[in-house]
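Researcher: Here's a chain I'd like modeled. Treat it as a single chain, no partners, no ligands.
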Amino acid sequence: MVTGFWGWAAFLYLNAQGGDIAASNYKLPAPSLPALNDSDKPNQISIVEVLAGKPYLLNFWASWCVTCQAENQFLRNIEGELPIVGIALKDTKENASNWLAKFGSPYQTNLLDAEGTYAEMLGVQGAPETFLIDGDGNVRFHYQGLLQETVWQTRVKPLLNRLRSAHE
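Model: Modeled as a single isolated chain. Structure tokens:
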């Protein structure tokens, strides 16, 4: 009887979330962060203004993060699907820039959160962590850990498609 109750409760919860227990809908905090290596851009860039009006991924990564190397390859494979903003977490400008030069950059914009203050505002526990931001600047999905093809195809891409359909 108790098992049936919890099973039914889980079914209702997951249906309310569209099958996605990491679904969210809250405003992305709007502080500015320094650009990592783009000398032609202003030193401080507002996260929310970077890609206003379009869905995008916000990805926290670090040069000290071994898992981020594997995720970087995957992000480079999907970078044509939507813009990706990268935030180097608790890193130095030099180490992060060297890491991107070595492994390549899937990011349309590279920012630096050297102290991890912005990451704390979002509840980031470590790297890598990825957020899907809708065109209105709302966090719609938060994923902790290595973003892979399975997660992309079953959780992120369907939500992205719904977001795009809603704005057409």
